[in-house]
C-alpha cells in the first residue's frame, strides 16, 4: 500500500527517510562509520539522519550516492515536456522565410544604346 505523503507531517517524513537510509545501510552490511567515510560526512550526521532528525541536502545527497540510491532524486532532474500546442508554436517561430528566386541569365543581355 502506497502511503499518502501529504497526510504525513514533516517530522514523520524525516523519520521515514531515516528508516530508509538505515535499512539501505544495513542491507549492505556497512556501519555508520563506513557510510560516513564513503560519503565524506560525519558519523553524527548519519546517526542524526537515521533518527529522523533534519540534515542538509548537502549531507543527504552524498549519503544516498554512497548507498547507490541517488536515483531517488531523478524526478527533480527531469526536463519539462512540451505540450503539442507549445511544440507547434515553437516550430512556427523557428520557420525561416523562404522566397522564390529566379536565376539570371547573363546571355540575354541587350546592349545599351548609350
What's a concise summary of this model?
With 114 residues, the protein is an all-alpha fold. It contains 5 helices and no strands.
Fill in the keyword field for this structure.
49% helix; mainly alpha; 114 residues; 434 Repressor (Amino-terminal Domain)
Describe the structure.
It is a single chain. The chain has 114 residues and is mostly helical. The protein has a domain at 5-76: lambda repressor-like DNA-binding domains (434 Repressor (Amino-terminal Domain)), CATH 1.10.260.40. The protein has helices at residues 10-27, 32-39, 43-50, 57-67, 84-94. It is elongated and about 100 Å long. The model has no long low-confidence stretch (mean pLDDT 86).
Which secondary structure elements does this structure contain, and how are they paired or packed?
Blueprint: H1 10-27, H2 32-39, H3 43-50, H4 57-67, H5 84-94
Helix pairs in contact: 2-3, 2-4
Q: Rg to the nearest angstrom?
A: 31 Å
> What is the H/E order?
HHHHH
Stretches where pLDDT is under 50 for at least 5 consecutive residues are none
Q: Classify the fold: give the CATH topology of the domain at 5-76.
A: 434 Repressor (Amino-terminal Domain)
Taking all residues together, what is the mean pLDDT?
86
What class, by secondary structure content? mainly alpha
Question: What composes the largest sheet?
Answer: none
Span from first to last CA? 96 Å
Global geometry = elongated
Total number of strands: 0
* CATH architecture type of the domain at 5-76: Orthogonal Bundle
Measured by DSSP, the beta-strand proportion falls in under 5%
Instruction: Report the total helices.
Output: 5
Amino acid at each position: 500500500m502506497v502511503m499518502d505523503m501529504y497526510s504525513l507531517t514533516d517530522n514523520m517524513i524525516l523519520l521515514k527517510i531515516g528508516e530508509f537510509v538505515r535499512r539501505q545501510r544495513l542491507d549492505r552490511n556497512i556501519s555508520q562509520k563506513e557510510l560516513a567515510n564513503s560519503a565524506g560526512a560525519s558519523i553524527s550526521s548519519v546517526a542524526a539522519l537515521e533518527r529522523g532528525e533534519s540534515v542538509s541536502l548537502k549531507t543527504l545527497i552524498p549519503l544516498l550516492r554512497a548507498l547507490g540510491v541517488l536515483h531517488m532524486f531523478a524526478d527533480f532532474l527531469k526536463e519539462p515536456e512540451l505540450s503539442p500546442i507549445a511544440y507547434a508554436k515553437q516550430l512556427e517561430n523557428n520557420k525561416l522565410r523562404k522566397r522564390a528566386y529566379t536565376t539570371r541569365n547573363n546571355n540575354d543581355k541587350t546592349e545599351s544604346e548609350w
